Amino acid sequence: MEAQQGERLELLTTRLYDAALTGDVPSLRNLLQQDPLILDRCIIEKSSRFMQSPLHVAVNLGYLEFTTEVITQKPELAEELDQLKRWSPLHMASAKGYLEIVSVLLTANPKMCFARDIDGRNAVHVAAIYGQFQVVEVLLRAKPEAARERTTSGESILHLCMKHSQPEVFKFLVQTMGDGQLLNSKDSDGNTVLHLAVAAKHC
């Protein structure tokens, strides 16, 4: 009996991931009717079988309605980090430039702006690296202090803009934050932002 129950739950979990892969909201709701705790188990059961939560999968593929439904049912899933790069769903949405999904995730937990990945980067760092200008603006409005966080290598958000060739985001951040301290700060290699900018001929 216990083995059969385990097989049933495993099958339902597989169907949940299938639904996330296609953004199938009716299937999600049907699964929740069959097993109201199915999303809870995505938090409790950390297994190598699934490297990401169903929310990560849906966010990565840009499924707004599915993301919204999951967040409505289980907002705690917004706090889960994947087992690949320790990215939160907010990291993923920020990298992809999914503005509406970013807004949904911020509503669930704005403190996830401070969640760090394996390199110590938060969501606004990732948005800057990928040149997601509008996402940077949204994240700055939500938690402006997150933009002042440093990575594991001591990089500021301005260092990241220069290293990843995002001069427009760099200029916007300098104008918005107006912080000479950030401009003169050094990373773990002793490089200031201005050194990197001159070397890259962005200034």
From TrEMBL:
SUPFAM superfamilies: Ankyrin repeat (SSF48403). Coiled coil: none annotated. It holds the Pfam family Ank_2. PROSITE patterns: ANK_REP_REGION, ANK_REPEAT. GO terms for cellular component: plasma membrane. Keywords: ANK repeat, Repeat. InterPro entries: Ankyrin_rpt (IPR002110), Ankyrin_rpt-contain_sf (IPR036770). This is Uncharacterized protein.
